[in-house]
Structure prediction request, 551 residues.
Amino acid sequence: MQQTIPISDIELEALATRAVGSVYSMMLNEDASQITTTRIDETTGPGGAPSLSLQPSETLIAGSVGFIGKIRGVLYIFMGLSLAEKITGGLLGLDASDLEREENETVNDAIGELTNIIAGAFKTDLNNNGCDCRMTIPSILRGSNYSIESTESALRRTFKIDCDGDTFVIDIIMEEEL
Amino acid sequence: MRVKILTVDDSKTVRIIVRKAFKTFDCDVLEAQNGVEGLAMAAKDTPDIILLDITMPVMDGVEMLTKLKSDPNLKGIPVIMLTAEAGRENVMKIAKIGVRDYIVKPFKEEVLVDKVSRIVDLRPAGDSAPAQKKIDDPIDVLIVEDKPAIIQQIKQGLEHTQWDINGVSSTGEAIDYCQNKVPDCLIVSLSLPSDAAITLYRIVRSNAKTKYLPMFGMSVKTESEEQRRAQQAGFSTIITKPIDFEELEAKIAKAVNLDASGRYFDLSDGFMTVKLPSKCSNTSVNELSAYFKTKTCEAVDNGISNVIFDTQEVEQLNLEVVRLLLQSMRVCNELSLKYALAGSPKIIEESRKFEESKDWEFSESIELARESL
Prediction:
């Protein structure tokens, strides 16, 4: 049976735009007004990472944060390595040459934190709608040509975010705790 | 003393952002990855403030905060929570345990610095031992005044200095200016509408970067009520119009801690020459007097034992100048320094009018004064 959650798709889309916008404007000093959010479903394209249309050779980074409580699930953020490095540089004030000297760990940590911040905004909205839940610590997946599948009973919402040429995907998989 | 900030966060990214935010301040940023490490560092290093994440492995922020507040030695350390979770319930929970403030991620670095600076005394890096600027160094003075003629007048009045005098017409422009570059001194008109000068004063004082910026109020001499309110708000220096530019220059030099001694003292060729200015006002006499002992000690340290008091350019020998010279001669006698006076015929004539100076011997040039020693 397909799940329902107390946030409408419109609210969810607005929440994703707001959360990404605040990270871009506050921590990356970029113009948040350039952000557009598109909901991806079966009719508009493949969900999750495939909607990024990355080159098969490009490393795909997925940051994930789980939430447990009345609603449980996982929020993923998918992006190519080049964008992950750009965001890391922006967050930490590092240029490309600094980043080359850094290890994968630095980019992983920055994307983990980005995911944590966006999941935090999502969790706050859930709490405000009466669905108390707690967040897990972030984790990172690295690789190429992989995708995340959800169980049939879970509700899945995927949003493609475009900001001035940067594209990434927020994928939320959740179900109500019985 | 350097401020110690402890950031407890499992994210290296956040710890780097915190370090970056405070790099221009005189502080040490200590880092811990979880509550257990955080408690250990708090006990070992006694930080002045802790920035604490909530969701962390090993020991989360709420548990660390609870343990911190139950330890008599650590409970006084102020804590700001840095959290990605903004929910009301969450905030209430941590507020009950006892936090000074909280910041929801994402945050602007300026917000973090601002909140920390409200709790601890943050000073710009290097402020503990600043290299003293000299009177002819190019300092930056910002005037906030909606009457362009006054700005122009100040620029003209101080044009003999090397100072960079800039004017803006509103407090908004002044804040923008200070965000780009903190001036060395800020002069704000107290007659700006809607008490804008007092509002600007509060904004400047609440910002860590500008907290210690010397700030003068400027007002028409007769507007005593305006001046009283400004002093109550915290303005310690008021410049009155019409402006006495010599006084203004001296006040700026003092507030910015400029070394103005070069204007009066020259140590060269085995002599210390003390040059009295043409207009010996109270301000300049006091300024010269304040430097005299230090410069005399410097002269002695450099093996100089002869002092020339050059009064050739003094327009009028008044009692203040006579007293200054008497006091300086006394210091010379105490240090066994030989001294001579150089003065114009007019000054020599005037010196005869005072009981204290009627017997002084003057040479008519510095060279002759030097030869007399």
